[in-house]
């Protein structure tokens, strides 16, 4: 699939812009919306995403998939894995916090927001990703959880355009595989990158909290939580808290 790039100086959020302007996009392509600044950036569960000007990458990819695509809701995992692979090409070791946060040294570098709207046999994916690229230490301290940036980790200023192009290429390659085979080809690699396997965690599914041991993920990308009563609960969405 070809990319259609849209570059914005300032926007409420790339995700909101994508939804408002969907009818103007060529859905045979991947529309890539990139903003220099977000005024109302949001992550999962409506959390605020701090989005200072001129420093980071704020992106939303919009594309369509067949509703028959296997493991459709795990497409966000594939974008997280794509970023990990790009970082690896720079000799940067990163891990994934389920479902799709990318961390370096247990500090959050990137977060992904996946929203899918289905209509008849077609699913439109709005896949947002925020990557802390050139944030300084003082800016990172304003985030309510441990966070980092590529500049903080490497002590150098990064070329955002170069990073974006590498991510687009890697994601396009992986998206092609996902469309044909679902999440299965990514399962082992993703699980090997997963944080907290074997650890006791607290998990929030959007309504209730659960405490258990992070056991594994399924071949569809769902999280398996081993409970105190020796049962296994499986979740397709939620957050480790």
Describe, in plain words, how this protein is organized in 3D:
The chain has 241 residues and is an alpha+beta fold. It has two domains: 3-192, Bira Bifunctional Protein, Domain 2 (BirA Bifunctional Protein, domain 2, 2-Layer Sandwich), CATH 3.30.930; 200-240, SH3 type barrels. The chain contains six helices and twelve strands. The strands form two sheets. It has a seven-stranded mixed beta sheet, with helices on both faces. β4 and β5 form a beta hairpin. The longest helix is centred in the last third of the chain and has 22 residues, at 160-181. The N and C termini lie far apart (36 Å). The mean pLDDT is 94.
Number of domains: 2
In the predicted model, the low-confidence regions spanning at least 5 consecutive residues are none
Helix content: 10-25%
Described by strand count, sense and barrel closure, the largest sheet is:
7 strands, mixed
Euclidean distance between termini CA atoms:
36 Å
The CATH homologous superfamily of the largest domain: Bira Bifunctional Protein, Domain 2
Quickly count the helices: 6
Question: Roughly what is the average pLDDT, rounded to an integer?
Answer: 94
* CATH class bucket of the largest domain: Alpha Beta
Can you write the helix and strand succession as a string?
EHEEHEEEEHHHHEEEEE
Query: From the helix content, strand content and strand pairing, which structural class follows?
Result: alpha+beta
Cα-atom radius of gyration: 17 Å
Strand order of the largest sheet: 1-2-3-7-6-5-4
């Amino acid at each position: 699939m070809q990319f259609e790039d849209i570059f914005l100086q300032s926007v409420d959020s790339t995700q909101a812009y994508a939804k408002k302007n969907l009818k103007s996009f060529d859905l045979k392509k991947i529309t890539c919306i990139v903003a220099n600044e977000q005024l109302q950036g949001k992550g999962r569960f409506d959390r605020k995403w701090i989005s200072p000007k001129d420093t980071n990458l704020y992106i939303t990819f919009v594309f369509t998939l067949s509703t028959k695509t296997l493991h459709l809701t795990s497409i966000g995992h594939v974008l997280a894995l794509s970023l990990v692979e790009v970082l690896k090409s720079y000799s940067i070791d990163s891990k994934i916090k389920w479902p799709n946060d990318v961390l370096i040294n247990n500090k959050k570098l990137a977060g992904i927001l996946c929203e899918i709207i289905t209509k008849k046999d077609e699913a439109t994916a709005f896949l947002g990703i925020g990557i802390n690229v050139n944030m300084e230490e003082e800016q990172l301290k304003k985030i309510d959880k441990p966070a980092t940036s590529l500049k903080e980790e490497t002590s150098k200023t990064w070329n955002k355009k170069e990073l974006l192009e590498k991510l687009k290429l890697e994601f396009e390659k992986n998206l092609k595989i996902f469309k044909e085979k679902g999440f299965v080809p990514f399962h082992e690699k993703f699980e090997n990158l997963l944080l907290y396997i074997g650890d006791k965690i607290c998990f929030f599914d959007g309504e209730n909290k659960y405490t258990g041991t992070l056991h594994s993920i399924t071949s569809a990308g769902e999280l398996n939580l081993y409970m105190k009563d020796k049962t296994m609960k499986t979740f397709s969405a939620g957050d480790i808290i």
